[in-house]
Amino acid sequence: MSFTINATINDKKVSASTEASTSLLEFLRDTLEMKGTKLCCNTGECGACTIIFNGKPINSCVTLAADADGATITTIEGLADGANLHAVQQAFIDTGAVQCGYCTPGYIMSVAALLDRTAKPTAEDIEEAVSGNICRCTGYAKIVDAIHLAADRLSGRA
Amino acid sequence: MAKAEFTVVGSSPARIGGVERVVGKGVYGIDVMLKDQLHGGILRSQYAHAKIVSIDISEAKALLGVHAVVTAADAPDVRYGRSYIDRYILARHKVRFMGDPVAAVAAETPALVKQALKKIKVVYEPLPVVIDPEDAMRPEAPTLHEDMPLPKNLPDGVKVKNVCGFTAVHVGDPEKAMAEADVIVEEAYETKMIHPQYLEPRMTAAQVEPNGRLTVWANAQAPFPVRQEVAKTLGMPLNKVRVISAELGGGFGGKGSGITSGAAVEPICALLAMKAKRAVMIVLDKAEETISTTIRAGAKMYIKTGVKKDGTIVARTGKVIYDAGAYSGFGTQAGGRCTNMLGGWYLMPNCHIDGYVVYTNKQVCGPVRGPGGPQAAFAVESHMDSIATKLGMDPAEFRMKNMPKPGDKIVGVPKLRDVSLGETIRIAKEKIGWGKVKLEKNQGIGIATGSWIESAGPGGGAVVKINEDGSATVHIGKIDMGTIPGFGIPLIVAEELGIPVSDVTVVNVDTDASPWDAGTVGSRGILVSGTAARLAAIDARGQIFKMAASLLEASPDDLEIKDKQIRVKGTPAKSVALATVATNAHNIIGEVIGRGYCDNLALMAEEKAHGSSQPFTTHACIVEVDTDTGNVKILKYVAVHDIGFPIHRAAVEGQIEGAAAMSIGQALCEQVVFDKNGRTMNPSFVDYLMPTINMMPRIETTLVPGYPGAGPYGAKGAGEIACVPPLACIANAIYNATGVRIRKLPLSPENVLRSLKEA
Amino acid sequence: MEYFAPKSIAEALSLLERYGGEAKVIAGGTDVMVDIKYKEEPGCLINIKAIGGLAGIKENNGGVRIGPLTTIRDLETSALIRDKLPVLWEAAHQFASLQIRNTATIGGNICRASPSGETLTPLLVLEASGNIAFSDKETAEPFINFFSGPGKTTLGAKGLLTAIDVPYPAAESRGVYLKHAVRGAMDIAMVGVAVLITPDAAKKAVRDVRIGLGAVAPTPIRAAKAEASLRGKPLTPALLKQAAELAASEASPIDDQRSSAEYRRWIVEALTRRGLAQSWKAATGKEAV
Fold it and tell me: For B681-693, what is each residue's pLDDT tens digit?
């Protein structure tokens, strides 16, 4: 059974048809061919598919595409301002937090949402924000550095 | 070498390819989109061991929208493998583990693929299943491979079965020496299977080109071995196959060894594409991947060591039982490495260890990050602490007592060039506060060391082309999964050519264009491609200087290159732009193309003459054990490494931290759990527990200078060695906290609490 | 698969009446989506998110009424929940990842009826009840009677949970929710223990105590014998230990890939002991002596 989804994705109005069983991740990747959001566990356990949905980070793999009707969504493709990277994107590159880069889009979305909530996150805030984002490459040290660097730059401390 | 000599190597600029990755525009394997692409899927065995009586594909084939259904009957009767050639791309006659591929389908939609797979009727005749490798060696065990011989080097009189690899270590006269020892400690250790769990699912896309050639897109660490194995298993001429590598979302050896690692997804997908006459793409589901692709094998290790009262080790004997899984895979090699490493990396005058690699009805051993090393080190470094305890010696002091010197041999290495091991121990003690830090109740401190191979092996080349704007395009045979193409290689080429790092492009591997390479495996990226790229850049620079010399009326020997300008040394005013020379080249030789190789024979000669420059490491940690629940929390973790000269410092630290995290996961929570029928009980990430940020300590990395390796500028490989010490490091800290020695992984809350209760 | 997004409870109930066992109700979807992908697709999906008035947290007759579509994150960030129902807040706080908490709903967690469901043991010790609607009737069902097995509730195929009523516990009471997992919040609990204890006026003896156990039986349970052994008595370390052992004996855990039954009993004992001691100290300012 297919029906039409009207949503605002990365500040653009999008209208496309989808099946009832389609996940939001499949809608983004396969229907809209926006491949930036990554598929991994497909069960809501790894965070690779994290997007910002009506202002909150969620796992798009366990969300119905149908729920996107009327929603406002930001994906990794919509975070930078033209050629100017978002502070979190820049910090991930600058600190060496991007190894294979596969968890990176989801990670960046979680961190961008965190820094929207909290200008100077504590270790506890960081754990809460990204415990659902698994990185298999870095052992997390450089990612923590990236989060602090981005926070400092956003609030003018660096 | 002092850092000051260099412009960019030794620093940590932004990785090449970083921007694409942070804006979601990096094209990984699973992001590939081919025109009119069909979806492919694989039917896997539901038995761990069974005869295939019949396969009926008629109903699946008849479904509208299904374009191809293939079984072993569609492929040549050809097997693949590394030491034992024992595996078909699609099971023929028998299945040997749950997950063995039996048939495959290509259809218009993923839903249709699922539906068609369900309609394939396979009749099995179940056979007895063997899960434990020690059981599999017994005479009464079921035979997994009827036509595979036992290893030729098995000692006379040894009665075993299902063995597909044997390694023996013999040094001196261990029996005699053991008899003269003051103290003998004998123990048994066991590690469990873990999955590498790179985040990007394994994929392949394939299409037959109008000219009849086959193009395969694979997120494989070793595109050239994939090409060779696809051609072989499909009976095609090698030059009709082209393999293109996309960005790789992690591999860790799991995507390492050609189709041996990939559960043959590449040839199966190609077979579908040939039959469907359409492009086909297969993406493995994560749970499917967890049960079917290659893993870090479990090992049982028996270890016995004799020491003198003063702490001098006089002899070691031991036995390794290494679980290959259903096919030999990388088991023979990894098991052999494990056997050698059970001899340790300290002075060992007398030693005898036998290592058996054994078939079981489980998924197959692959070359996962440091194959054989973490397992051996869990036994060796836990055992070192047990001996120290028995002697009443400080564990670190006991290790120092048996420290090799430059020129000494250790098991598996005939001659050491220099030895940084003691220095790493000294620094790790200092960083962790050994003997100084005040520990609360149920807290403990632990230390463990490690070593890894740094030696001759397959060679590899590089091509550096100078474009007319002075930028450089580099071709190597190694892929980018957060490794050298994005980090080390651009720095090396920029250093030698005097150009900015951002002017270097490293091209993804395409077997039609890139130099041959054995793959991004074995911590060999910097040694092989780093050496080759440096020599290729120097070759290109030589050609540039030759052409610039005539423009500047100087000798090529008097020229230098900096900031994209070629200058006469000491007369900076006399200069010409690199871009000008490169453009002029169009009218002379066309393009400056530098070539370089990592020469294996030269490396071997160097090792023979001066010894090998092994990397060494010491890790130390402080843990707290919850004696009510068995939970272990790591409070502090330090990793001290000699990896020679760090070409891209942040990348090297990142490799160390990531490798350590993977073994910390294996230590505390990771394992693939099987039931007695060989079914994987925890295939999804709900129950396959990898470390999350909240359970990880900050890994504090220290790089020890002063011990140059055989790589460019004195670099050593850094991708695997940090996987070696963590298992024992944590076990030793738990012992220190509780007085209980745990010899079986994982050190999960249940295992720890059970051990505490049984102690 | 058919798909409906009813706008009212009545519409949803008539769909359930029509499709019965063929239908699956979806709210946040964090569990149902996994079922759709990896188990059988249901014949019909009823998405109840468009029904107005089913989300929100309100004070109501000496307690809190929670709409079933309230997300776990909304519970976690509610000052009212944190202040008045800290045992439930603690469960919300330790619930999976932030991404999941932003999507998953308390109603979904309850109706999923997983023995390890994070919010269930707190709801049992808080003696909460659900407002359950069928096409022909509406009842208030205490959650202690609601769960009948893994994935099974008195809703059957045709009922809908329309509200969750949580009465405030006695002002002097204190409680905790303790979750045992290897990696913390991200994991499914190996064992969850919720404790609520009310001392007598002299803060000497236990006036009331409630102990909820999760992931150790086919449904979340109350440890009735352990509770009875404590009521009316001063909380001594010996009594505390005995009660914890009783709780362990009341559990009927299974061996699975997460842990053995024996280990789960050990953890029930340890966490009950810990939970009682912590709650007693919070309620009386004193250690159990």
Answer: 999 999 999 999 9
Is residue B247 within 8 A of residue B29, CB to CB? The reply is: yes
Domain residue limits, chain C: 2-167, 174-284
Q: Could you read off the pLDDT of C37-48 as tens digits, one per residue?
A: 998 889 999 999
Beta carbons of C2 and A1 less than 8 Å apart: yes
Residue window 20-39, chain A: list those with CB within 8 Å of chain C. 20-21, 23
Q: Residue A136 and residue B252: Cβ atoms within 8 Å? A: yes
> Going by C-beta distance under 8 Å and a sequence separation of 6 or more, which residues neighbour residue B289?
B195, B201, B202
- Asked if residues B358 and B334 have their Cβ atoms less than 8 Å apart, the reply is no
- Would you list the domain boundaries of chain B? 35-127+197-292, 143-192+301-416, 420-452+613-759, 456-608
Structure token pair of residue B221: 């660490």
Q: For C184, which of A45, A129, A131 is closest by C-beta distance?
A: A131
Contacts of B622 (CB under 8 A, 6+ apart): B432, B437, B439, B443, B444, B445, B446, B634, B635, B636, B733
Judged by CB atoms closer than 8 Å, whether chains meet at B631 and C271 is answered as no
Residue A110 forms contact with C (CB below 8 Å): yes
Q: What is the pLDDT of residues A90-128, one digit of tens each?
A: 999 999 999 999 999 999 999 999 999 999 999 999 999
Superfamily covering domain C174-284: CO dehydrogenase flavoprotein, C-terminal domain (3.30.390.50)
Secondary structure of residue B91 in the 3-state scheme: coil
Determine the residue among B629, B689, B747, B753 to mutate to test chain C binding: the one whose Cβ has the most chain C Cβ atoms within 10 Å.
Answer: B629
- Residue B654: exposed, middle, or buried by beta-carbon count in 10 A (0-12, 13-18, 19+)? buried
Q: For B594-640, write each residue's pLDDT tens digit.
A: 999 999 999 999 999 999 989 999 999 999 999 999 999 999 999 99
Over 80: is that where the pLDDT of B452 sits? yes
Would you call C182 and B681 a contact, using CB atoms and an 8 Å cutoff?
no
CB B99 within 8 Å of CB B44: yes
Q: Of how many residues is chain C composed?
A: 289
ipTM for the predicted complex comes to 0.98
Q: Which CATH number fits domain B35-127+197-292: 3.30.310.10, 3.90.1170.50, 3.40.50.720, 1.20.58.760?
A: 3.90.1170.50
| B536, containing H or E segment | helix B531-552
Which fold would CATH assign to domain C2-167? 3.30.465
**Record: contact B23-A99, CB cut-off 8 A:** no
Compute the nearest-CA separation of C162 from chain B (Å). Answer: 29
